[in-house]
Amino acid sequence: MEKVLGVTEARAMLSNIVERVQYHGDSFVISRYGRPAAAVVPVEVYENWRRQREEFFDVVRNLQMQADLSPEEADRLAREAVAAIRAGS
Fold first, then answer.
1. 33 pLDDT more than 90
2. Which pTM was predicted?
3. Rounded to whole angstroms, what are the CA distances from 33 to 1, 22, 30, 38, 72?
């Protein structure tokens, strides 16, 4: 379950939020001035995101070496790939 909270409410409930995330798998989006600013998710979700991100950049580095791209060109292609993935989400 994902719940959106304002910063003030989240501050007052932080202990409860951590408990719900840790033991129930809930997720919270913390908003500031009505806009999403941060997320509190189970550590497994965070670790999975980090692993996927690192794997993605490993692929980019390997492709860069295989294609003999300059770091700037590889960076441009990586930014385009990330933008395309985000647009498809």
1. yes
2. 0.64
3. 22, 27, 10, 12, 37
Q: Dump pLDDT digits (tens) for 44-68.
A: 999 999 999 999 888 888 887 888 8
Going by pLDDT thresholds of 50, 70 and 90, the confidence category of residue 23 is very high
**CA-to-CA separations, 56 to 8, 42, 67, 77, 80, in angstroms, rounded:** 36, 22, 16, 12, 13
Structural domain spans, the chain: 2-41, 45-88
Distance CA 31, CA 5 (A): 6
Query: Are 31 and 54 contacting, i.e. CB atoms less than 8 angstroms apart?
Result: no
Classify 69 as helix, strand or coil.
coil
Architecture of domain 2-41: 3-Layer(aba) Sandwich (3.40)
